[in-house]
Design a protein that fits this description.
alpha/beta; six-stranded parallel β-sheet; 15 strands; 34% helix
Length: 344
Amino acid sequence: MVFTAVLAGCGGMSKGWLSALTEHPLLKGRVRIIGLVDLHLPTAQARAGEFGLSDITVGTDLDDVLAQTRPDLLFDVVIPSAREGVVETGLRHKCHVLSEKPMATSLAAARTLIDQAAAAGRVHAVVQNRRFVSGVRRIRQLLQSGALGELTALHCDFFVGAHFGGFREEMQNVLLLDMAIHTLDAARFMAAKAPRAVYCLETNPRGSWYSHGAAANAIFEFEDDVVFNYRGSWSAEGANTSWESAWRIIGTKGTLLWDGADQFDTNVVVGVTGFFRDLAPLEVPESADTDQTHGHASVIAEFLEAIETGRQPETAGSDNIKSLAMVFAAIESAETRQRVTIAV
């Protein structure tokens, strides 16, 4: 099946979407773009020209463009504050909607979108592309195999000096809301555990070029007494980690280290005596399904397959709200300086 689609929001991120749709083997030929929408018409026109989209509808009013084109899909690449209205409009026009993260600017808004998608009989999913990378998939697979024993803790460091310019540098809670959600979602996915509570300290370090919340330290309590520690900053210059963070994952039988790229260092205990028990290296097997390891392209492909087969995609709003709840609980904890429970 070839889906028709309109893309709303033709800023910088839209280029990645359109490149994946037109060039990646998982997606090539599966989606036909029939409309572009942006509040700034020349931006939409320029993006159409860049990708050779000459025979499409280009406009500034999403409602009008959807009425004219009647697409199967709406790709929502707008800024977070516009998310709720764009998704509601797409669902009202009977589109399946795939949104950029975050899913919404509040849990109440996220719940509304879930209800609206259910009422419309359409899929609304969220781009959590950083769970669709090889390392994350391989770690989840290893943990599920029991090779590390029972999971007890996850620790991650995210330190990147990122100079975006634009809206991010004016956002409140910029690290937690705009980036940490990727890492928190990955932790929840790898652990396969539900988050229960958090204590978070949020700061904006001296020298930060962001208006608010460029750094955060959070301790999450997952079910089954699993602890997840997050340390991060978007204004830490001099020694960037991977965008996927650097991880230490501990089980009752051993520990896995992952640099967020291609390097794993995993050891399990094999000795039964001595102050430090003898260790043996453990191989982290390749992902069982490499189609799930291509980031943005895999998210979109999974979304399409879910629609074709009549199931909910992995990053459907009804699941993604659990990661969003982690973010908002961390923000509340930072504001109140108290432990906050997480409930969806």
